Amino acid sequence: MVKLTDNQMTLTPVFVKYNFKGTFLMVSFLFLYVIIGSFFFNITIFTYDILKIVANLPVSIFFFLIIFTIFLLLILKEKSFSLLRLVSLISSSFTLCISYVFLFFYNGYCNGITSSFQKYITYEVGSKFLLNLSYSFALDGISVYFFFLTCLLTFLCILFIWKEDEFKLYSILLFTIQFFLLIIFSVLDLSLFYIFFEAILIPMYIVIGVFGSRERKIRAVYLFFFYTLCSSLLFLIGILYIYLTCGTFSIEYLLTYNFTFIEQYFLWFAFFLSFASKIPMFPFHIWLPEAHVEAPTVGSVLLAGVLLKLGVYGFIRFSLTMFPTASTFFSPFIYLFSLIGLIYASFSALRQTDLKRIIAYSSIAHMNLVILGLFSFNSLGVEGAVIQSLSHGFVASGLFFLIGIIYSRYHSRFVHYYSGMVHTMPIFAVLFLIFTMGNIALPGTSSFIGEFMLLGGVFKANVITGVISTIGVILSGAYSLWLYNRIIFGNIKEFYTLQYMDINIREFFLLGFLIFFVFFMGIFPSIFLAYIESTINSIASYYF
Q1: DSSP class of 355
Q2: What is the pLDDT of residues 182-215, one digit of tens each?
Q3: C-alpha distances out from residue 21 to 24, 82, 89, 301, 511, Å
Q4: Distance CA 383, CA 345 (A)
Q5: Is residue 359 within 8 Å of 484, Cβ to Cβ?
Q6: Both 213 and 318 in a single domain?
Q7: Are 348 and 494 in a shared domain?
Q8: Distances, alpha carbon 15 to alpha carbons 10, 12, 79, 384, 475, in Å
Q9: Which residue among 130, 152, 186 closes a domain?
Q10: What does R_g of the chain's alpha carbons equal in angstroms?
Q11: 354, 414 Cβ separation under 8 angstroms
Q12: CA torsion sign, 159 to 164 to 165 to 169?
């Protein structure tokens, strides 16, 4: 036995004991009560009225709560592990519950408003300050789902980093990313959208650069920063031209403004470069595999789950609605590069030996398929693209969580080191199978609904494009099943892995959330389509 000296004993930190299990279960049962009760049972009138009151709260409550959480985490000491975890858990679970209430009562507070946006709060800034701006925050049938997805993944990321030594910095960066994303999905001012659209690079840069796994993380963050920032320079020029032409940054006003044909062509191309690099489309995809491989697990989850959707959201919010003529004119260009990206990424995934890199190329293929649906210019294809984007947020996040789990145990992502995991980690094998089936769009999963509608819209727009797109879907099944077969079945490689530990309760719980939504969206798609259709119909009015 090693005896400690007096000096060593005085340096021993004293931690406050807290019943995390009780708090964890309390928050979990509260959230499940709200979900199950609101969907399947008739909750008491009292509970329903309380939730309806919460649904009418301004969306700014998210911003103030997250800012307060970040400030509180900053002033807390790093050694206060118990308090840091408690504050992060309560804040993330509270924002998740409120975002769900907003989603469930979305139609409840329309009150006959004809606008597709449900406005919650507006900040007026006089002409003496900041160009006479009016900052409006609102949600529509598309952004309300991305709002919820952001809060859900933030909550799950907090659970995943529960035992990290750098929990304080991790949680501050996660809440900062959440804050920026929620503003992007709710703001109705083009200048504010651009500011936070680019500002989100900063916390992601730190997440990858500081918590990355290898020395190549510096190169990865340089690529990430270079591609996404440089491609947005024309976006900034386009925004400034719009302000000089229209005299406002209000998205609601710009949606009704008729740009000339020449203006639409140049502005569409300026916006396209920024959104294409965020998705990413071919040939702007080089940064994504590097960023995924070098990023920590929570960085990959947020990157694949939400950040890639910023490009999709930008195309829907701006390109398709503000520049409909230019979108139609450039559609063959979009079809060509999306098909190249889809086929190229699918074949590249077959050749990879790093687990994260395989899922990264899979994400590129799926997001290029989403772009084909967006530019099909019919309600079926656009609705399928939105559903597929949401589904990819659940499925890809689950796959990255699973890869992060085995990396935390064995500190390697090399496929050759893993085999026969069905014998040593049977629960992991079952969960990996569920997300693999979701990745290949098995009927009953959320991806099946998205891809079925998406391909239907693509075939309706262009048969040749639809036929080539199905090749990418077939290749998706090839690399997904091949990956599953290589690491789950076969003989156990005892030379590389001597000790085994299956999924624990915390990991099973956070993956259970994603599995619930993968099957729920696949079995009850009409619930999600009910909100999306109204917004998509307003977009379709620009083309028909």
Answers
A1: H
A2: 889 888 888 889 988 988 888 988 888 888 777 7
A3: 5, 12, 12, 25, 18
A4: 24
A5: no
A6: yes
A7: yes
A8: 14, 10, 8, 50, 52
A9: 186
A10: 23
A11: yes
A12: negative
Q: What is the 3-state secondary structure (H, E, C) of 486-510?
A: HHHCCCCCCCCCCCCCCCCHHHHHH
Check whether residue 225 and residue 275 sit in a common domain.
yes
User: ω into residue 324 within 30 of 0, thus cis?
Assistant: no
Whole-prediction pTM = 0.84
| Average pLDDT of the chain, as a whole number | 80
Matching residue, tokens 């649906």: 373
Which range of residues forms the domain containing residue 414?
Answer: 330-544
* Domain co-membership, 348 together with 273: no
Structure tokens, 518: 């993968």
The predicted-structure confidence for 472-518, as pLDDT tens digits, reads as follows 889 999 999 999 998 888 777 766 666 778 888 988 988 999 999 99
C-alpha 176/C-alpha 114 separation (Å) is 33
pLDDT at residue 91 greater than cutoff 70: yes
Asked if residue 164 has pLDDT above 70, the reply is yes
Neighbours of 516 (CB within 10 A): 13
**Environment class of 526 (CB within 10 Å of its CB; exposed 0-12, middle 13-18, buried 19+):** exposed
Look at the chain and report how many structural domains it folds into. Answer: 3
Burial class of residue 65 (count of CB atoms within 10 Å of its CB; 0-12, 13-18, 19+): middle
**3-state secondary structure (DSSP) of residue 138:** strand
The stretch 117-140 carries a mean pLDDT of: 58
